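Hey, resending since the last one bounced:
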Amino acid sequence: MFAESLSRKDFIRQSSILLAGTTGFRLEEKSADMPFRLKNVRLETGFVTEDGDITATRTELATLELRDGKITAILPNDPSGKGHDAKGALALPAFRDMHIHLDKTYYGDQWKARSAKNRSLRDMIAFEQRNLPELLKNSTFKAEKLIELLQSKGSTFARSHVNIEPTSGLRSLDHLEKALENKKDTFSAELVAFPQHGLYYTDSAGLMKEAAARKSIGFIGGLDPFAIDGSVEKPLDFVVQLALDHGKGIDIHLHEGGESGIRTVEYLIRKVEENPALKGKTYLSHCFVLGRLEKPKLEEIAQKLAAAGVGVISTIPFGGLIMPVPALQRHGVEVWTGNDSIVDHWNTFGSGSVLQKCNLMAQLYGYSTEFDLSRSLKIATGGILPLDDKGNRQWPKAGDRADIALVNATCSAEAVSRISPVKSVLHKGKLIF
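The structure tokens again:
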């Protein structure tokens, strides 16, 4: 076997070249006193309408001036001027992966598929308890390779859950903090302290308190409170109080359905209503129970989520369950997306592309028109779209942060429909590749 003829260090190095070498990462250096210019950049300028129907998107080439991490000016295009040549690539807001686990992956190491023996969450907890010590040995390296994959797909930001449980203690967090420090010039993240093995099913509450005090932690997480810890109220009360004590947000993994699933949603909404400081800072990840509700109950819950400022992070699942994303968005619920697992012991299908998630959503919900495809992009960009619903350009504008994905497409609708390749990415005005 190829791997057996190499040392582990050499194998990892060569694997990383195979996995990430094609992205050609480099950081463009420039004087702090001089603006950086992008020329021949394609920007959306409006919709083309025929007989009341939006049939296309107008674009024009421009030059963007960047300084101190921001877009300082949008200038008429100067093809012969100085600056990085975008060669007609479409500028989109850089993507944001809002649900991923950077701390535990096989990516950058040897391939390994998911075990058929692990059928339930408790099976997975037991598996992690056995295998996390090995995974942690090079988790900083693998997290960096995973970040590079996300960058190659146009993302410069992620919300990453990080294991906080007795098996790894705070080591998963320590290692991920180091990876993010190494990538701080080209990538940003917010971290969720995640009791993957349950708050009380394993004795994780004390460790969660330690993690919550860390500056790097922005959110307090949770996992299926009734199914894992035997109570809806006790784990959520702990999470809410810990978030309030440390000024953090909340992001709860909720896979369970049925009566306990909807009780969890309604109880969390009630706790946010009682504590307005959590409004706009509280999220339910997955929340599969919403995909199983009858329409009247779904409409009621969607209204309550929107009123309480509780968002939903969906990986846009398909097959037997289709999430009611259109209904949530119609009521004003924030809905973002993420890859979740990328080549790990939970799942092997994550591509690193949230643009692919937009495409999947468009297919699932029949978003095939120019307008609907263009609107689908917002789940990957944190809600930022180049054009508003009336076709007025709202991005980019002077003062915006210079986080930009340059893609091989003529407009947002094409980018979503074709999952167009990312040609270059800028983070805070720095050209990554």
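The chain has a mean pLDDT of 92.

Sorry for the duplicate.
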